[in-house]
Amino acid sequence: MEPTTKERPAGLFVGLSTLDVIQLVDHVPASDEKLTAREQVVAAGGPAANAAAAFSHLGGTARLLTAIGSHPLGLGVTADLDRLGVAVSDLATGSIEPPAVSSILVTASSGERAVASTNATGHRLAPPDDLDMLVAACDIAEFDGHHMELAMAAARLAHGLGRPTVFDGGSWKDGTQNLLAFIDVAVCSADFRPPGASTPADTLQFLREHGVVWSAVSRGERPIVWAGPDGGGTVDVPAVRVADTLGAGDVLHGALAHHLAGQGKAVRGQAVRGHLTSEGFVQALRGAAAVASRACASFGTRAWMQAG
């Protein structure tokens, strides 16, 4: 039986939306080389958008706070997210400029990807007037570090209202250190390198020193390294035949937010800050890793949803 809207955890996702043009190729072309792609996917993308889509697919109610705009390409992004059940609060509706576009080449033999994107460099977003209501309506809030002014405002509100906050650390960005003061859970990629950090242990220590209670570093198919107030450890990543690694980290975060929000339903807003245990964190990481691994077994960022 499908959960009712009231039973579904509500997630607020703050960050980047892009239009992803994904091509499956035999190899990344050399200079002046042309080749024919095996397959193509055109879809809404970006860390926060993909995480919201995963959260929705897993049974949550997802709202994405982002910038898309009214350019025809942007309307396609919004339509795709709507199809996936993600409610969009677009803070760039007055813009007629194209949305950020990511061009992605996925190598068929390995699933590795090469990405070129403009990211969020074209938009500076002020918090909306209804931000307090959006935050109050969520069970958990997730941030990808893009649109930092907006992220700071939303994270500060969420922290003040006792809503669990999750940070997706794909790479270090200006202002990240200030955002961490309002983050309960941070899961970062191996490419996330805070100042002075060169190893996952360094990153976990940095996050702890900046107020993050629960943290982890994902390393592709290698075990996830995690730390909490009572110690740490590793979580194995299920082995799959990799077809495409694009968006795996985004799916990991959407699934993690869904697991954490589900744990916290009975004690709204206190699961992470006051009641999350090492066992619960490991369980959430393990469940999220299983979903992300499943997503890697098919090409593009949508096929895994159709598979189950």
UniProtKB/TrEMBL annotation:
Keywords: Kinase, Transferase. InterPro entries: Ketohexokinase-related (IPR052562), PfkB_dom (IPR011611), Ribokinase-like (IPR029056). It holds the Pfam family PfkB. GO terms for molecular function: kinase activity. Transmembrane segments: none annotated. Residues 14-303 form the Carbohydrate kinase PfkB domain. This is PfkB family carbohydrate kinase.
